[in-house]
Amino acid sequence: MSKDYFESRPHPWHGLEIGANVPQSVRAYIEMTPFDTVKYEIDKDTGYLSLDRPLRASSQLPSLYGFIPKTYCGDRVSKLMDNAEIGDGDPLDICVFSERIITRAEILINARVIGGIPMLDDGEADDKIIAVVEKDGIWGNISDISEFSEILVERVKHYFLTYKLVPGKENRVVIGDAYGKAHAEAVIQASIDDYNEKFV
User: Fold this and answer.
1) What is the DSSP letter of 2?
2) What pLDDT is stored for residue 189 in this prediction?
3) Using CA atoms, how far apart are residues 14 and 16, in angstroms rounded to an integer?
4) Is the pLDDT of residue 38 over 90?
5) Which of 20, 74, 160, 197 has an alpha carbon 20 to 30 Å from 55's alpha carbon atom?
């Protein structure tokens, strides 16, 4: 992490607060919207949003996508996922659904956690927390993923199953069944503990 940059503007990963009601609700930093056809990702050194790669598959991201500040997927997170060897070493990913169209990235959203999707990427735990915008007109009162639209969860799973596909190469991504709010909160807490051990 660049010290000079951190002092002039809070680094989205290390300098922003997670929220006041963690793990039930979190503050999400948004890297991508459903309208993006390339993969954006935070640059860990500078904190700027950078182009990671063009997306080859035609599937569309069905939600806002980003990460939860001051989280890290390390040993504690990996122990919560079957067959995971390690965590992926990144902040914890989050998909946030909004009834209203949001077209901008690099924004902060207060989000209510409702569940998650276990994703194993070449042996690394890479959970996708599922959340809804707090006070959302349609989904604001949902408390668990069991109350959420099944087709939207399927679309999230399909997107992440295909977004790294390269012709002629084996797909090393495995997606499991969606889990509910209680397990999602455990994953978030584990990622906070992993972060504090590594960076604090």
Assistant:
1) -
2) 98
3) 6
4) no
5) 74
| DSSP annotation string for 53-108 | EE--S-----SEEEE-TT---SHHHHTTSTT--EE-SSPPEEEEE-SS-----S-E
**pLDDT(164) > 80:** no
Tokens coding 188: 């978030």
Residue type, 102: I
The average pLDDT across 190-199 equals 98
157 Cβ contact partners less than 8 Å away, ≥ 6 residues apart: 117, 175, 178
Q: Which CATH number do you get for residue 13?
A: 3.90.80.10
pLDDT, tens only, 72-93: 999 999 999 999 999 999 999 9
> What is the tally of structural domains in the chain?
1
Map tokens 């969606």 to a residue: 178
Contact yes or no for 121/172 (Cβ under 8 A): yes
User: In the structure encoding, which two tokens stand for residue 102, read together?
Assistant: 């949001």
